[in-house]
Amino acid sequence: MPFTWLVLIILTIAAFGYVMGRKRALQSAGGDRRNLHSLPVYYGANVAIWAIVPAAAVLVVWMLAQPFFVNSRVLATLPDTLVSEGNSIGLVMSDVRRVADGLDVAVQQGAMSRAEATSISTETSDVRERLGEVGVALGSAVSPEVLSGAQRYRTLNATGSVIMTVIVLLIAFGGAGYAYSRSNADFRARNTVERGILALLIAAASMAILTTIGILFALLFNTIEFFKLYPAADFFFGTKWAPSFSGRGGASDLGVLSLLWGTFYISFIALLVAVPIGLFSAIYLSEYAGPRVRSIAKPLIEILAGIPTIVYGLFALLTVGPLLVSMFGKDTVGWMQGGTAVMTAGLVMGIMLIPFVSSLSDDIINAVPQAMRDGSYGLGATKSETIRQVILPAALPGIVGAILLAASRAIGETMIVVLGAGAAARLSMNPFDAMTTITAKIVSQLTGDADFASPEALVAFALGMTLFVLTLGLNVFALYIVRKYREQYD
Amino acid sequence: MDTNDVKISTKDVQVYYGDNHAIKDVSVEIEDKTVTAFIGPSGCGKSTFLRCINRMNDTIDVCRVKGDIRIDSEDIYDPKVDPVQLRAKVGMVFQKPNPFPKSIYDNVAYGPRIHGLAKNKADLDDIVENALRRGAIWDEVKDRLQAPGTGLSGGQQQRLCIARAVATEPEVLLMDEPCSALDPIATAQVEELIDELRKNYSVVIVTHSMQQAARVSQKTAFFHLGNLVEYGETSTIFTNPVDPRTESYITGRIG
């Protein structure tokens, strides 16, 4: 039975249970809802929850566990000779799965009967050709061991699915029945539903946290794998970035320093643009602008934050780059060779960061109590004296936090760099040279056709880990500063 | 009671918050070297009127002031008058102590610094010490001038704010309920201080406490619903009021 059907049936049971549970609870109260402990909907919802939650939990666990179980059972039947012929276990198993999938497709398209798929053998027919006819291309002729493995794989999976369907449906019915039997006037359905909602919220929260941990571990394991193939000292202290493109050669130079330099240089220029403009516009909006100007200007600035970074990248490539070349290129001072440069990417990234700085700073400046302003005005200070000497010092920790958050955005930015700064890893002081960043190199290392087990591809994870540690550190530091600041006025 | 020169004189002052007519036809003459108390129920306009005297209402967009307010016979709403300069001459102390998040020294030195009152560092030190002495807080803070002003107790903070206002050598000191956030002991200290300040300044104090008005002031003005109902010697207002509304208020029947 297809998976969708199973889900639909469970939902039907839940819907039916909802109606029945509600009805039974009302009946037990003699039709008067005032005699019930909870509102009738809670009794219905209770039955529905009992129908869905245990069944869904079993379904998820089963679907996670079945492939492991089937794999190990099939693997046990495969002869050892097959594996030791210079193949890895993973490759053999992927052959098996591919043939099994091919048989499924053939049955589905009607090119093969169900019975034929289970009985077909390499002696009587050419399996590779038969599967080729239905569009499943196999790399080599199918060996009898792989074919029998594939057939066993299919049977196990089919049996597993049937058992799963039966068990899940039984649990759904059982849950609904159990909750239905308890639906009477004294049952505290409201409290049960409340607990169900709590569990749902906890599940959602832990899902986000577990994903973060999962990403971290995926990065970590691949990074460790990389450092087994490439010396860590060369990675961290190497100044040369020159991966060999064959993907197999051991002659790559994978030093992170030139990439780190590019990352910091571009981020620095971006902050040089974003911090003064963002801060000054925040001061204007919060201290000088009237409510009308503010209500128009603030959303307009925040639109900048909503522009996709690829659009900024286009802007850098097509507008800012050529403009800078015409200003600093061969025709004038000759500092700039091409449109892609640290300056190009830095300027555009700075524009992108303006709303981050201005919006957060605006909130923080507004949080400075009016009493501070009154005190300063009352002593005969002008507006800008008040801002410089009272408001900014009071808001400074929060503003620093805002700037650090913008910095971690800048360090993680990719598309603007790819399009605006070029792809050459270089250690140079000239802001009009093309350089590149960690993020841009991760993209280029993983989108090539290098072998995934080679250091040239795995270095992307080490780069990712470096970036992760950098931005995490900045974020933690920023949050620490922002929080410390908040305690002053609350 | 000896009579002093008139320091502040107002005539037919009207204040509007948008469409709301908050102060109606207030004419009053406030004397130099005197403590004048403004009393009245909440929302009667006494704080608003106080804030007209140093043009603090200019910082509120919807607020409009009409009429004539003169300090030493000079119209303070004249276009030639710089409100920033005026506020240095008319100091203000607020309801809630509001020291800046700076050191005690920098809090007091704030005004003298922006107005360039000190010749050099030693001069500034003297100004700060003098102001803190006049704020009756010098002995408590002289050993920790570099400690943050926000770390002091509520009463100390308020006296620091008074010292800060005194440091710019104002001629008039406006106090908007300076004791409402303080406990009785701190209140007593601040009241004692106000009495001291009378020797040098014209002090105007807004208060909700009639006992406080009776204790510290020589003149009292009673405001009700935006009108100045009665103005005169404090002893007269509290013992023998002319207007029945004043009597109702001080005996606790309205307000």
What's the arrangement of secondary structure elements?
The complex is a heterodimer of chains A (490) and B (255).
Chain A: H1 3-28, H2 40-77, H3 80-84, H4 89-109, H5 114-119, H6 127-133, H7 144-181, H8 189-229, H9 232-237, E1 241-242, E2 253-254, H10 257-288, H11 291-306, H12 309-328, H13 342-367, H14 370-378, H15 383-412, H16 415-420, H17 438-447, H18 455-486
Antiparallel strand pairs in A: 1-2
Chain B: E1 6-17, E2 20-31, E3 35-39, H1 46-53, E4 63-71, E5 74-75, H2 83-89, E6 90-93, H3 104-115, H4 121-134, H5 138-141, H6 154-166, E7 172-176, H7 184-197, E8 202-206, H8 210-216, E9 219-224, E10 227-233, H9 234-239, H10 244-250
Parallel strand pairs in B: 3-8, 3-9, 6-7, 7-8
Antiparallel strand pairs in B: 1-2, 1-4, 4-5, 9-10
Helix pairs in contact in B: 3-4, 3-6, 4-6, 6-7
What value does the Rg of chain A take, in angstroms? 32 Å
N/C terminus separation of chain B: 30 Å
Percent range of helical residues of chain B: 25-40%
CATH hierarchy: architecture of chain B = 3-Layer(aba) Sandwich
Indicate the proportion of strand residues of chain B: 25-35%
What is the 3D shape of chain B? globular
Write down the CATH topology of chain B.
Answer: Rossmann fold
Features:
heterodimer, A: 490 residues, mainly alpha, MetI-like fold, two-stranded antiparallel sheet, 18 helices, flat, B: 255 residues, alpha/beta, Rossmann fold, 10 strands, 36% helix
